[in-house]
């Protein structure tokens, strides 16, 4: 889905370095998410934002921070990278319509593979 | 918060056989249950979903069933084909103010030709 893009696609960095992963979307969705994928652990939510002024921690936010620069942009930062942050990172967007008939289909970006040495 | 458990973690079936993946959830007020498929090296994509006001939904070879009383839901794939090989994630949307979606840990399905 070219409507959600992530940069970089691959990154190798060293322990202690600061790194930023960027996500952009042209879907016009208000909701954006950052997930981390590790083998056997599924997709775990790091942070989510339901509009530009609303940012919330997910289940594994320690060691990460985010910035919602605009409706279309949501960045994830690792202030001081450590090896156990080596993972595949996905950005996603959704456009929740309220009410019983609503769904919350999430549209994922292509992922960023991050390796921390 | 919501907790979603998914089983099995890996599943191998012969081409043409059926595959079943099961998930349980903890929040009895959850009302939306999507399933995502992630092919090797690709991003997860929604394949089917079900709301809490129905017990079953079908889309060609794929079906999802929901048992609200037992708080479990399942994905059924019939007449499996090699292109069904992928990782499948179940998910549940909680009833909290933000109505977040929580994912299961994934099932790696291998269809053997």
Structural commentary:
- The complex is a heterodimer of chains A (117) and B (113).
- In chain A, 0% of the residues lie in helices and 56% in strands.
- In chain A, strands 2, 4, 5, 6, 9, 10 and 11 form a seven-stranded mixed β-sheet that branches.
- In chain A, a hairpin with a 2-residue loop joins strand 5 and strand 6.
- By secondary structure, chain A is mainly beta.
- Chain A has strands at 4-7, 10-13, 19-25, 31-38, 42-51, 54-57, 64-70, 73-78, 87-94, 107-108, 112-116.
- With 113 residues, chain B is mostly beta strands.
- Chain B is built from no helices and eleven strands.
- Chain B has strands spanning 4-7, 10-14, 19-25, 32-38, 45-51, 56-59, 62-67, 72-77, 86-93, 101-103, 107-112.
- Chain B is globular.
- The relative contact order of chain B is 0.35.
- The model of chain B has no long low-confidence stretch (mean pLDDT 94).
- Chain A binds chain B through residues 1, 35, 40-45, 48, 50, 56, 58-59, 90, 94, 96, 100-106, 108-111, and chain B through 1, 6, 9, 31-32, 34, 36, 42-46, 49, 51, 53, 89, 93, 98-106.
């Amino acid at each position: 889905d070219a409507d959600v893009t992530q940069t970089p696609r691959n990154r190798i960095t060293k322990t202690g370095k600061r790194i930023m992963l960027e996500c952009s979307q042209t879907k016009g969705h208000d909701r954006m998410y950052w997930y981390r994928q590790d083998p056997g652990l599924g997709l775990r939510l790091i942070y989510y934002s339901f509009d530009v002024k609303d940012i919330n921690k997910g289940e594994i936010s320690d060691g990460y921070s985010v910035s919602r620069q605009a409706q279309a942009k949501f960045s994830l930062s690792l202030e001081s990278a450590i090896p156990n942050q080596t993972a595949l990172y996905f950005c996603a967007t959704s456009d929740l319509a309220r009410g019983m008939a609503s769904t919350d289909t999430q549209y994922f970006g292509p992922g960023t593979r991050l390796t921390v040495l | 918060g919501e907790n979603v458990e998914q089983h099995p973690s890996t599943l191998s079936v012969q081409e043409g056989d059926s595959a079943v993946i099961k998930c349980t959830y903890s929040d009895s007020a959850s009302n939306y249950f999507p399933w995502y498929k992630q092919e090797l090296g690709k991003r997860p994509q929604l394949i089917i979903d079900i709301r809490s006001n129905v017990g079953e939904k079908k889309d060609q070879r794929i079906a999802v069933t929901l048992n609200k009383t037992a708080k479990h839901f399942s994905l059924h794939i019939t007449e499996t084909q090699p292109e069904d090989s992928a990782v499948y994630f179940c998910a549940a949307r909680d009833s909290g103010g933000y109505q977040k979606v929580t994912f299961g840990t994934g099932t790696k399905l291998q269809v053997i030709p």
